[in-house]
């Protein structure tokens, strides 16, 4: 089973994977991994791509380190990754959704590379072609 972090409140089964979205539920990542359950990070403050972008949006994604939420290093392998969400009920058109989400989505591979480099010193080759044309998106 996979569920939003509210499933912690009812008690986790041994097979549950938690999607942590509520940034204000600070103990959810440690509670999840402390019970041996995997977790996917999708904190609303950084990875809800339908939220209105502001001057801090890109920096908040780029500087976010999900491993900092897990105090016990032995539990870090339970972190399966991150997910960006786009909830479209308040977005009036596909074009507006693309305008809001694509710049932050394009950051994601670079973000993963930055985290990898900070942790291991390893560099990833460029993932976006240098001649990317916005009309092909």
End-to-end separation = 33 Å
Strand content: 5-15%
Order of helices and strands: EEHEHHEH
Poorly predicted spans: 127-137
**Treating each run of at least 4 consecutive H or I residues as one helix, how many helices?**
4
Count all strands and give the number.
Answer: 4
Overall mean pLDDT score?
A: 81
Q: Give Rg in angstroms.
A: 16 Å
Can you give a write-up of this model?
With 137 residues, this protein is of the alpha/beta class. 32% of the residues lie in helices and 10% in strands. The chain contains 4 helices and 4 strands. The protein has helices at residues 28-34, 44-47, 57-62, 94-120, and strands at residues 2-4, 17-20, 39-41, 79-82. The protein has a 4-stranded parallel sheet, with helices on one face. The longest helix has 27 residues, at 94-120. The radius of gyration is 16 Å and the shape is globular.
